[in-house]
Amino acid sequence: MKKQTTGIHHITAIVGNPQENVDFYAGVLGLRLVKKTVNFDDPGTYHLYFGNEAGSPGTIITFFPWPNAYKGKIGSGQVGIISYVVPEGTLSFWERRLKKFKVAFEKRNRFGEDYLAFEDPHGLQLELVARKEGTDSKWSFGGVSAEVAIKGFGGAVLLSANPEKTMTVLTNVMGLDKVGDEDDLTRFRTADDIGNIIDVSRTELPPGSMGVGTVHHIAWRADDFGDHESWRQYLDNQGYGVTPIIDRQYFNAVYFREEGGILFEIATDPPGFTRDESAEEMGKGLLLPPWLEERRSKLERTLLPAEARVLKEDLE
Question: Per residue in 137-193, pLDDT tens?
Fold first, then answer.
């Protein structure tokens, strides 16, 4: 039986200084820091999660901050651009806000939509696009009110070492629908209204290299734990070297690398970020899984300070 994901669950990237990361995504873009934890595979590194007020699937961007690490190179086998969706009629607000924080941007048009394209402080390629679809965020922070706040992901642009095979994976394995071609891009979409638009570049670029300013992986949604196990079996039957199911505390995950070199994850919608702290307290303290609690004191001494704060530009 053919399966179909409803869209992007989260995207994970590598960045530099953690406070710079928080200042940009919370302070400038107005996202909520919904979880401050560590990379379970490398506990000396933060794992920071940002999203809407609840950290809903389709809104979550996560980061491994590597202070003083080497710069990565964006290229094939990666997510090249991350798109965020904002409410209709708010791009002028976001133009003013980016100018206020001295973030250089350019205007683009793709498939009849206007985009604001810019980089984060560590080189990640970002875009804002205004759409009616998608639930409005209820989160306000700094100078970003709920009325203009980022709803979640608009989608992503994938850079593949084998675009034809990546596009086949999107349609035949992940269940996306092809909706159009423009210039060197082919557009796909899912049935959901957030994190639902994927553009694939048909230009074969030189390979990317992992490091600061690059995306580590893109994760797709599974409805629940049963659906997730079905996805793992489905991928295994398709011949992908899919991993065993891994408990990531806030979702379960499996991973596989598609033929174009991009690391895909399938992640469960539940249990979510209130598993270990209340909705009101999310993102304020360092949360650790039970097996790392005995190392808390050492980790708190090792990790650099990182907290969501209203920036001086919004205090003036």
Answer: 999 999 999 999 999 999 999 999 999 999 999 999 999 999 999 999 999 999 999
**Would the pLDDT of 1 be above 80?**
no
Amino acid at 62: T
* Domains delineated in the chain: 8-315 (3.10.180.10)
The first and second tokens of residue 311, run together, are 């920036």
